[in-house]
Amino acid sequence: MHRAREGLGPTLIEAKTYRFEGHFLGDPEPYRTKEEVAEARRSRDPITRFSAILQQLGVANADVQQRIDDEVTAEVEEAVRFGESSPEPGPELLLTDIYTNADADGRSL
Questions:
Q1: What is the mean pLDDT of the chain?
Q2: First vs last Cα of the chain: how many Å apart?
Q3: What is the pTM of this model?
Q4: CB-based contact 28:14 (threshold 8 Å)
Q5: pLDDT at 23
């Protein structure tokens, strides 16, 4: 965090994780067992682990975390409703918002 705040350039963050779902919808996942996935969900889920750390540190109790979960769920559901009820974009928007007029430091070119 210090490097970022001091503007010392990019930093590589290696985040080791576990993919809880298959490679695609309907993947039969013959390469691992259901028990392996269940164990990974129990022991390696970053959200569950972070929640436990917050409780251990006294930063947030279970009630606060449940309220946050409920708020996030409602926000995601509203975003899905908005997306599903919005008209499909036209082809004229295909190439918009994919380039920037700024350099790597955020200055306009």
A1: 90
A2: 28
A3: 0.57
A4: no
A5: 92
Predicted pLDDT of residue 31: 94
Scan for tokens 């409602």, then name that residue: 74
- Close Cβ partners of 60 (under 8 Å, ≥ 6 residues apart): 51, 54, 68
3-state secondary structure the chain: CHHHHCCCCCCCCCCCCCCCCCCCCCCCCCCCCHHHHHHHHHHHCHHHHHHHHHHHHCCCCHHHHHHHHHHHHHHHHHHHHHHHHCCCCCHHHCCCCCCCCECCCCCEC
Backbone torsions φ then ψ of 102, nearest 5 degrees: -125, 155
Residues 6 or more apart in contact with residue 109 via CB below 8 angstroms: 101, 102, 103
Chain segment 65-105, per-residue pLDDT in tens:
999 999 999 999 999 999 999 999 999 988 888 877 777 77
